[in-house]
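Notes from the 1:1 (GR / supervisor)

We went over the backlog. Supervisor wanted to see one worked example end to end before approving the batch request, so GR pasted a single chain during the call. The sequence is below; no edits were made to it. Supervisor asked that the structure be written out right there so they could see what the output format looks like.
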Amino acid sequence: MVTTAETKLKNKFGQYFTPERVADFMIELADISIHSKILEPSCGEGIFLRCLQKKGFNNIIAYEIDKELAQGFKNVQYESFISAKIEDTFDLVIGNPPYIRWKNLEESLKQELLQSALWNKYFNSLCDYLYIFILKSIELLKENGQLIFICPEYWMTTTHSLSLRNYMVSVGHFEDIYHFNETPIFDKVSVSLIIFKFVKTKKVATNIKVAKFSANQKLTSETLAKLKQMMPLKDAQYLEISPFKLNERWLLQSDEVRKELQILEKNCLKKRQNPLLDLFEEGKELYHTIAEFCDIGNGLVSGLDKAFQVNGDILNEAEERATVNVIKAKDLSPFWAGNITKYIFIQEVLTENDFLEKYPHFYQHLQPYKEDLDKRYEYKQKIHYWEWSFSRNFSLFSKKEQRIFVPCKERISHKKHFRFAFVEADVFPTQDVTAIFKKATTKESIEYILAYLNLLLVFDWLTCHGIVKGNIVEFSEKPIASIPFRAINWNNLAEVSLHNAITEMTQQYIQTREKADLEGIYQLFTKLFER
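Structure output shown during the call:
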């Protein structure tokens, strides 16, 4: 039962029901006998019960808080799994637990959690309903018992689920994880999902088998069978990764990438921090971030870009002054930007007669678009058809400073880079671009920041920790602000020298676009990270 904030009003228990083919697949992951004791902690309509019974499993108990569901099953307890006093232990716990953020919980559910000893021992109001379902389910497993759940994958990396992750590492290990990044398993739910098999055991953990599937298409039984057998499949990636450890984010990446990201974050540690400290200790920001050194702004919103583009039009003096130069996302490349387009941009208050008199060419230009312009979203204020919908961050973009542009969304299916581009002053971003400016107090050059953001290490970090929906990485202010930043120690002459060399070589590469210059930049960063 999965929910998102957008769908919280659908029902108060966060109910989304598992397709039969997925339930069958999950049952097939279990290594149990026909007599094994099985628990389903949130059975919903009873799909797991039905599939288990079809396969001959009958030693099952299930819990369901909603008495309108799972009718026709004799083994369902209609009470909350959280409060239920369960004395038995189980060989298998399987299901689709509810996912509801604390702020979206019904008041009765919040009160239940606040009275739960297990919740108060491990969690708080920054945690989600899902966490206690995972933890209590493991508590109820026998030695070598198995937990198989389908749920969102966000908790594997968030700060507030650290207590859950540490608990799981201390009592067992994962055997299999299936990651569905863009695959629509539940109707109208876009959250990234995983199916995992966790074993409660004192035995030494073995490597985890990971299958990642990112196709935006209906999940079939054939696809699931191929993923289980790790057969070649379009949009599938197979990994075998080292067991997860205490006090770390759980990344579904190769060991090599996981090691690189640790190196990156350790290089970004703030001064006087002990590098042996846990980088993911709850509530502490140990490393520098881009937000400390840069101002970030999402682009201006015209509401209909094609209407405001005036390249090649004949303009009078007033009209020339009432334009801005714009670079669109499609014209951005790593390190540099391409075509500049001139846009109508009128800030003064005008009547339509004033507009016609002062800007006659603009008036004629906009008439074919007038009907569509009048239908634009108005952001809680009345706008005329010659005005932009939302001039957000205009004062930031008006600064007479060089800046960095990046597309606000980037598909990464078949590439290993983002497009952070150097842009001169007096060029503006529209809504498909986010802009980055160095703060007045920042000593690092704009070229150094640009080269840093284009590193493969930063690409890997963002694909793991940024806002990723399917194969789309979002570059709004928040995800950019959180990127770890390798600040320069200005008291260290060697670091200052490397900074200056990176700056100079980046300036050169923007002009020459020679591969040798790019490789030189990366080599300089390697030296900096080795310090």
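Supervisor's comment: The chain is about 30% helix and 20% strand.
Batch request approved.
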